[in-house]
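Co-fold these.
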Amino acid sequence: MLTIHLSIVVFLPLASGLIAAFAPRAWARWIVLAGTLAVLGYAVAMIVDFDSGRPGLSYATDDEWIPELGIHYALGIDGLNLFLVALTALLWAISTLVAAFKDYERPRLFFFQLALAETAVLGAFCAQDLALFVAFFDLMLVPFYFLIGGWGEGQRVAATTKLVIYTLVGSLLMLAGAVALGVLSAPAGGEASFLLTDLEAASLPEGTQQWIFLLFAAAFLVKMPAFPLHGWMPDGYRATPLPVLVLFSGVVSKVGAYGFLRVVLPILPDGAQHFQELLLIIAVVSILYGSVLAFSQDDARLVVGYSSIAQLGFITLGIFALDPKGAQGALLQMINHGLVTAGLFFIIAVLAARAGGSELLSRMGGIAYRAPVLAGLFLVVALATLAMPGSANFVAELLILFGVLEDKLVYGILAGAGVALAAVYMIRFYQRAMHHRVGTGVDSRDVRGVELVAIASVVVVIIGLGVYPQLVVERSERATVAKVRPAEQVADRGGEAVAAPAPAASGPAPGAGGVPGSRGGQPVPVGPDGQPIPVGPDGQPIPVGPDGQPVPVGPDGQPVPVPPQPGQAP
Amino acid sequence: MTLVAAMKGPAIDYAGLSPLFAVLAGSITVLLVGLFPGRAVQHALVPFLAGLSLAVATGLAVVHWQTGDLDPIIEGALAIDTLAYGISILCFVTGLATIVLGLRSTAVPETGSGEFHSLLLASIAGMVLLAGAEDLLTLFIGIELLSIPLYVMCGSEVRRATSLEAGLKYLVIGSIGSATLLYGLALLYGSAGSTEFGRIAAAADPGDPLFLTGIALAAGGLAFKASVAPFHQWTPDVYQGAPTEVTAFMAVATKAAAFAVLLRLFDHALASAQPDWGPALAALAVVTIVIGNVGAIRQRSLKRMLAWSGVAQAGYLLAGVVVGTRLGIQATAFYLAVYLLMNVGAFAVVIARERRSGTGDSLESIEGLGAASPWLAWPMTICMLSLAGFPATAGFFGKFYLIDAAVSGDYEWLGVAIVVGSMISLVYYLRVVAVMWMSPEQVELPSGPKRRLRPLKPVTGWSPEADARAQPEVTGVAILMAAATIFFGIVPQPLFDVARDVGSSIAGLG
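Predicted complex below.
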């Protein structure tokens, strides 16, 4: 195994940014670009080197940082964050490249902030200590605050203030939740620890888990954003400079979803199970609301912005299916969404340059004939966004829907409508921008130069993942399944606990409540053969393999690696 | 002959008292040296001697640093434990910063350099007494020795009406606070039958109405000093009116000393009544957090904004007192140290701009500062982010530690109150950052190249115009404080070690 020092990966951008801040003005952009490219190289090396059969963390670092508070400086890579780190590295490299060819006032400060942002995001993805995660999570906001407020467009200061206050309200609630989690999880008389593994091992009472869950959910849902908490999005997206928006929408929004998988599900399984319905409702409403609004926008940025709300709704849906397939789909969809959003925003920049600087769809149109390369690239991205079979998005959404349909049929059906709506708004976007009548003042040049490089490299990765989604699915399976398992078990146990006292009253009879295997809307876990899952003497369900045989359980209580799940590789 | 035996004086631990002696000796020396005329004496020698005495006092406190719950000296009147020394060192450092910031102040020559620095050192001596007070009498003497010089210093810009107004206002309200405190202390004595903290702790009867009334009055009196709501009304006016270097000193050092005595009085002498005063102080903390943060939102004056923010921060700090645990003491001490860095840094920038911009301490004075002079804008930005509690600054761990203490002490909701306060505070802290970095530069700098500070030149005369030229020492203080804020935001361990030492000074806490 390669020796890769995660600390170098995380802090390399910051180092390059600091050097750039004191270097001659003209050099700043190239120094930061070199830093992001080096991180990208590291990320590719990690993907190649990654051993998907290895349990636990790779390239782990774990040093005591603040013994008084039990905070560790712990970084690590597993299947859950490997590709998110890679996505971060890729999009940052491309965005920095695009930004390097533009003229910004005070370039040293701009590129320093860009680099600081990458360090913060990488740190949040790699952190294996809750306090460290919270620190990086909050730190992300500082550079984006400066980038949007200093180099944004229109009402930038108002927009950035709104954005930061929205997100920080969530973050600070999470800070309180994190401290409470660390303190309350400490064994009686023992030292507190914020290491995620220690927190996973401790089990909190259900009531405590519930209020802490809400604090975390607030932070992550604002960051995504999800439906009722997206108020900052339209203004924020309009004001953000495009290369920064690519990062903010493509990468930063994923940190929230990632937080659910990394922190919430394994540590607060009871809380997650308790609020499962709430989160599923939020997810479905986000999907429908985002899709409908994306269809009705004239501003191309907001089409993508609202479509992001819908896509992140899908991701939330997959996570809170509390099912390994759903979670895997969610993870894959995070990568896909990052890629297609980046592609779309770069394309918007190109389109706007050809429509006299306007990003309104009504000003665009009719350039496909003269700009075939752009049209082709855009078509690939658009089809990927609407989850055309053959794209990785299709695989991801299928996995998510599989995960949901198993237990939560209604949500699955509603979300399925969202898939259709995606086709509606994306095709509208494509038609308005590329075909239709030629807009007044539209200059139909084809894409070239650095923009071509940026869009083409995103498209290459999109196509690559579409051909071979197993790259992500295989490497992430082990970690994802392990993170979802506790909540899944709680969900199953919850169902059993209800069913057990009064088996005669209603029982897990198929047909009750209209849905096979459900009772009064509450799911009852059933094995693949339609039989309730047997319960062990400790009240824990015995995991059953696809063949109906109990799966052997390892000494750590985790089932020994399960054979491939059905539907995992369509 | 028996009379002689009874008159045996108390044993005096001169080594333990040496930091206090250094400051007092400095105060007297500076006053006398200041009598000599001549620019070299007034502008160089006097500040140097004052700074020297503070540096010596700091060194002595470090040398005599000894962890554990030490017996108080002078017949149980004064503690020389780590809590006393730790807070004293904070006051010494603030005093040093004040001297440096005041090198070009108009207040210093108007009062007379010797007098100003002598008053400053006397006030610091009061803080040392207060931080170490183990006896109600020491406490009161400390409070008065701290306050009386400060009243004068607030009014030391004698040609500016607002400065005089600030001095008078502080005098009147401070006296009310002292009177309330004194009344409370008298009741405590009446109930416990002793003025020593140790004996009060032993004799305390939580059911005694006299005792509880005493606690309430004493808390009220100390709340005046710590600007805890609803006893905070003087804070914005006095902070704004006083010369800014005095404001910085008052904001940081007075608060540190006041919280030291709150910790010692409540968590040591009155610890047995914690179930009684705990909820009441917790309620005060919440009220303070809300009032301070909401009050700061409307402010256009930086000094008033920092005053209101200081009220809010007092609310956060109070959480560390409320829980009455060792962790609470450590968190409070930690936050006080961080508070010093952030506030002195911010006030240094205000001083620099106030002397240059001609728009006083209003928000306009820092408009476009990011482009015009990044060496001032960065420290201000870092201090604001730290006050707001962003990670990678010391303020993050300060809040983290306080919330940790609150949650561990079964005051989860107080932790949430701190968090909610921080949310409100973002509005005004981020506004400062936005004004510096995100608005076009409108303020014309009076002279000098934009991006470079002029080298230090001997200042000719004391006119404000001359001050506008160069003040590298003010920028230096700001940069130093900001750098320390970042350093302790990334490597907080040294501060945690000190805080742990301070926490060991009161035994018998959970």
